Amino acid sequence: MIRADLDALVCDLDGVVYRGDEPVEGSAAAIATLRERGVRLLFLTNNSRSTVAQYVSKLTALGVPVEPEEILTSAVVTAEELQRRGHAGRTAIVVGGEGIRDALGSVCISVKDDTKVTAGDLVVVGWTPDFDYEDMRRASLAVRKGAKLIATNDDASFPAAGGQLWPGAGAILASIERASGARAEVMGKPHPPMMDAAARRLEGARNIALVGDRPDTDLAGGLARGWTTILVLSGVTDAAGADQVEPRPDLIVGSLAELVQ
User: Fold this and answer.
1) If we measure between CA atoms, which residue out of 127, 228, 219 comes closest to residue 173?
2) What pTM does this model have?
3) Confidence class for position 75, pLDDT limits 50, 70, 90
4) For the segment 133-174, what is each residue's pLDDT rounded down to a tens digit?
5) What is the DSSP string of the chain?
6) Is 3's pLDDT higher than 70?
7) Cβ distance 156 to 127 under 8 Å?
8) Sorting pLDDT into bands at 50, 70 and 90, what band is 25?
9) CATH topology for 8-46+189-260?
10) Percent of the chain having pLDDT more than 90?
């Protein structure tokens, strides 16, 4: 069970707070209750398409007012990690949305969007609904020419509106890995770059829990850090599959609303 002295909660977004543009029922009120109880919140998402500012706007519109420093995306983590490794000033071919471009630009990595350019220092892959054959061709050619292949995340799918699961960044990445013959280094949950970045932002917290809908990313990432893990059934995992998930969570609830009850 969740500890009474919980002082920080790492909260996934897709499938936990919302699905597509539809809020998960009761999530906004639950987050407000957690704030009233003094719980520090960090919203952690593998979806790299949007910028932090866009996430702030989306959450605020859904009744969840947040500060930019409370949001950590896989795009931000990717940029921070590449900067830490000395890649500032390098060039990148990006398969992904504005979130990746904005984050890479903030650490002085130049994104090459000219379709004639098929070489660079890095190929960075995330999720975008505009992915096409040209993206796959440019990315795989660049990797074959020596570019390092980086993925913001490798989620095979994500929970969309209407209870549907749509192909995620991992599906896009798989085609580029297959075409290039290379394996990407993944920055998002449950891998160390993102989990370490989350821990740094919650420095000083003594009892941290992570709530998410994906066992392979959310639960595995929280377990690796020694945090309490909470599975919600409002996203990828449903009640029928909850008993078979691995790793096992410390707690299973239907939604954030049930968590605060």
Assistant:
1) 127
2) 0.94
3) very high
4) 999 999 999 999 999 999 999 999 988 878 788 999 999 999
5) ---TT--EEEE--BTTTEETTEEPTTHHHHHHHHHHTT-EEEEEE---SS-HHHHHHHHHHTT----GGGEEEHHHHHHHHHHHTT-TT-EEEEES-HHHHHHHHHTTPEE---TT----SEEEE---TT--HHHHHHHHHHHHTTPEEEES---SEEE-GGG-EEE-HHHHHHHHHHHHT--PEE-STTSHHHHHHHHHHTTT-SSEEEEES-IIIIIHHHHHHT-EEEEESSSS--GGGGGG-SSPPSEEESSHHHHH-
6) no
7) no
8) very high
9) Rossmann fold (3.40.50)
10) 88
Candidates 3.40.50.10740, 3.40.50.1000, 3.40.190.10, 3.30.565.10; CATH matching 76-186: 3.40.50.1000
**Mean pLDDT, all residues of the chain:** 95
